[in-house]
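Hi F.,

I've been meaning to write this up properly since the lab meeting, where we talked about keeping a consistent format for the predictions we share between groups. The idea is simple: the sequence comes first, exactly as it goes in, then the structure tokens exactly as they come out, then a line or two of notes. No screenshots and no reformatting. I'm using this chain as the first example so we have something concrete to point to.
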Amino acid sequence: MVSEIIGDPVAYTIEIRLPFYSDYGRNIKLGERVFINANVMMVDLGGITIEDDVLIGPGAYLISVNHQLDPHHRKELELKPVLIKKNAWIGAKATILPGVTVGENAVVAAGAVVTKDVPANTVVAGMPAKVIKKIG
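Output, unedited:
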């Protein structure tokens, strides 16, 4: 069913727990061995790429669309892709905002709101998310 939503074959190594939400679906790219827990929402009009071995916790939001701040252009969309690199872990109820790249092996703590790129091999937490430690 997910293959129909995103318009590409989905590897048998991918596990998606239901319910799963997307506003469009055709702009989601999934790597191998991806685990997406229940209640994840992907707003994908701007593109969402999830590389191999990524874990996404329950209730996470990946958002690739925003509106303009200027009130005269507020209804215009701003599309910025989200990229989750290999072996990253997005914690429960974390929010990844438009244009963000989460680096390889990075961990986004539960409930974090990620407004800027996350360096590889780091843990980020908070609102807005900040690096709290390095991994390895």
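Notes:
The mean pLDDT is 96.
The chain is about 5% helix and 35% strand.

If this format works for you, I'll send the rest the same way.

G.
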